Amino acid sequence: MEPEAAKSWSIHSRGEIIAKYEIQERVGSGAYSDVYKARRLSDNVVVALKEVHDYQSAFREIEALQILNSPNVVVLHEFFWREDEDAVLVLEYLRTDLASVINEAKKEGRSIGVAQLKRWMLQILCGLDACHRNMIVHRDLKPTNLLVSDDGLLKLADFGQARILLEPGYVASYNNLQPYEQNAVNQENAFQPPEVFPETDNLCQEAYEIQDQDTISKEEYFRQLDEFKAKNIDETDEETNVHDGDTSCLATCTTSDIEDDPFKNSYSYEAEGGRDDGQGCLTSCVGTRWFRAPELLFGSTDYGLEIDLWSLGCIFAELFTLEPIFPGTADIDQLSRIFSVLGNLTEEVWPGCSKLPDYRTISFNKVENPIGLEACLPNCTPDEISLVKKLVCYDPASRATAMELLHDKYFSEEPSPVPMSELWVPLTRSGQDENSLRGWSGHDGMGSDSDFEDFVNYTRTDTGFSIRFP
């Protein structure tokens, strides 16, 4: 442990950084990165220095943030990267997050007002729309990764798991990245954003007054994504990027955990060698369990932007109720909770779902009377329930896009969204401990993995396991 501790503080010995920044304190630490609060010496601006210990995570975050130009995405000022050193990203500093907004409201026994809810939601939608119009899938959306400024400006953060699904003629290869001793975002040798879907500066100033824009249609997106997958571009998706301490993937298990896991051969584990099959596949082992789409839980490596939309629906539901909608204790329990609400996953509700890698590996008892989303959203209006239903549904193709939701009548009806200046912003991050990076790199806890033997009965079959819930 001593060498790791020394490494986490190596940022203090890097002359090119301390010449420009006064490092004040470490504000978070985790397996893949350490984050420091610092002051830029040239103008006294407070920034966050994120030292990333994983090459692939650093590349993904830098590439995504240099492509994106949105008021609702965290700003990357510059980065430092030498071949023999960890990457250090200089990000804007935001001291709280949406999870704290939710937790403080819950602690005080009050709901979040509708007008405030709409403003929070619009900001999330604007940030996500910027990502998706550039074909960037975040893959780890959750309240702790939605940072909030003192004046109520919400920004998507922690792009260490992000992937660019489609670019003109190629998919980003991590072999293309050359470490630089120092890079400012606007320098000539910085990454050049591909001209995919240009950002419009006024897109989200008043999102409920958005005019039609020249953006990719859902049908065109699916067509292009299918073409991309058909190319079988040699691309890796290493598991070293997984930040979520709650994921049940092999990359975060101990040796004993792995040996005892009866799903070792059926789930899409990719830790050995840390790579996929080299055929352009993504990994299913991403995100935080409570916000993970069903296709990921069933091992899909053939997904798209829609996994973010499921996560968005879970976030909206939590904003309405101040409680997570699917707080699973393990992946099997997560599926069980989803089934209890939406019913069993079948070909009738999602044509083609039987082709998911683990669909036939696990069998669930039929849920005779699913409670429905209405039961999970007490005291919500029909419009609010409808908004969540457009996102929390099995068929990815049926989920509403961020742009579609920005046009939803919910946001144009009274009460109108409050100005950002009227949003209530907590003074600090609630419940943050010194070992949690939260929005800076997603190490916060969402329940821990537990042996599913404690709450299910399972039997081995020729093709996998049969699961029976008490």
Automatic annotation (TrEMBL):
Taxonomy, superkingdom: Eukaryota
Pfam families: Pkinase
EC number of the protein: 2.7.11.22
Residues annotated as domain Protein kinase: 21-411
UniProt catalytic activity: L-seryl-[protein] + ATP = O-phospho-L-seryl-[protein] + ADP + H(+); L-threonyl-[protein] + ATP = O-phospho-L-threonyl-[protein] + ADP + H(+)
SMART domains with a match to the protein in the record: S_TKc (SM00220)
GO MF annotations in UniProt: ATP binding; cyclin-dependent protein serine/threonine kinase activity
Protein keywords: ATP-binding, Kinase, Nucleotide-binding, Serine/threonine-protein kinase, Transferase
The keyword Transferase belongs to this UniProt entry's keyword annotation: yes
Residues the entry annotates as binding ATP: K50
InterPro entries (alphabetical): CDK, Kinase-like_dom_sf, Prot_kinase_dom, Protein_kinase_ATP_BS, Ser/Thr_kinase_AS
A GO cellular-component term linked to this record: nucleus
Family according to the record: Belongs to the protein kinase superfamily. CMGC Ser/Thr protein kinase family. CDC2/CDKX subfamily.
Protein name: cyclin-dependent kinase
Organism: Quercus lobata
Gene: LOC115975703
